[in-house]
């Protein structure tokens, strides 16, 4: 389990997950105890801003893309499951 005790202040806590904005287009998603669940990356498509959610697979040391979403709320909801 990857736990980050040096992370900055949380931007928001919702439904058992914490989001920490790392830059303008990247958020780290953790549990309240600091366990990293994954990341959400904002990117621009021809139709507007999209949010890509990636689950961190710690044992395999890779990321699993979970999907692209139109809102950050939809991207964050995927980490609840």
Distance linking N and C termini: 17 Å
Number of domains: 1
Poorly predicted parts: none
Q: Helical proportion?
A: under 10%
The chain-level structural class is mainly beta
Report the count of strand segments.
6
Largest sheet, strands/sense/barrel: 6 strands, antiparallel
SSE string, helix = H, strand = E? EEEEEEH
Instruction: Quote the beta fraction.
Output: over 45%
The order of strands across the largest sheet is 1-2-3-4-5-6
Itemize the secondary structure elements and their pairings.
Layout: E1 12-14, E2 17-23, E3 26-30, E4 36-45, E5 48-57, E6 62-69, H1 72-77
Antiparallel strand pairs: 1-2, 2-3, 3-4, 4-5, 5-6
Task: Offer a few descriptive terms.
single chain, 81 residues, mainly beta, six-stranded antiparallel sheet, 7% helix
Overview of this protein structure:
There is one protein chain. This protein has one helix at about 70-75; strands at about 10-15, 15-25, 25-30, 35-45, 50-55, 60-70. With about 80 residues, it is mainly β. It has one domain. Strands 1-2-3-4-5-6 form a six-stranded antiparallel β-sheet. The radius of gyration is 12 Å and the shape is globular. The model has no long low-confidence stretch (mean pLDDT about 85).
